[in-house]
Design goal:
Elements: E1 8-17, H1 20-29, E2 33-41, E3 46-52, E4 58-64, E5 80-89, H2 92-101, E6 105-106, E7 111-112, E8 125-131, E9 135-141
Parallel strand pairs: 1-4, 5-9
Antiparallel strand pairs: 1-5, 2-3, 3-4, 6-8, 7-8, 8-9
Length: 145
């Protein structure tokens, strides 16, 4: 985005894994605390777990619930991998439009965050997007008028 454009910052990193408990154990060793454990998201056929560091950094752990899950193919050759990074903007609608104009494809329709980790996230919209120069990533934030 050009100078004077949208405010943007890191929101979270997501790991895809075949074993949430093993991932939680490793991240706990680093000081992350479990906040949400294996919540089902039916539309993606996954379990979502969220952990937070003492500095309020968020890690999202995504485990497929079956072969038809959106992350199953990603995990066909490895038990875990980074899935995506998420960026928070101060204007979700404007960010979405700017990305669309830049040729970014929308992968998931904009939606409210199913399992918000903070009070602010309860009002945020989110969408997964893709561009060959970046790969899969997510944007989130409030929708401004």
């Amino acid at each position: 985005m050009p100078d004077g454009g949208l405010a943007i910052e890191y929101d979270h990193v997501a790991y895809a894994t075949t074993d949430t408990d093993a991932t939680v154990k490793i991240l706990s060793t680093l000081g992350f605390t479990l906040k949400i454990y294996k919540q089902e998201i039916d539309s993606f056929n996954v379990f979502i777990t969220k952990m937070v560091s003492s500095q309020r950094d968020v890690v999202e752990i995504v485990e497929p619930r079956g072969a038809s899950s959106v992350v199953s193919r990603l995990l066909a050759r490895t038990p875990a991998t980074i899935y995506h990074a998420c960026f928070r903007t101060d204007d979700f609608r404007a960010a979405s439009e700017s990305l669309k104009q830049a040729g970014v494809l929308t992968i998931t329709k904009p939606m409210r965050i199913p399992y918000p980790i903070t009070e602010a996230h309860r009002s945020y919209w989110t969408s997964h997007v893709y561009h060959p120069s970046v790969g899969l990533f997510e944007i989130t934030g409030p929708e401004r008028e």
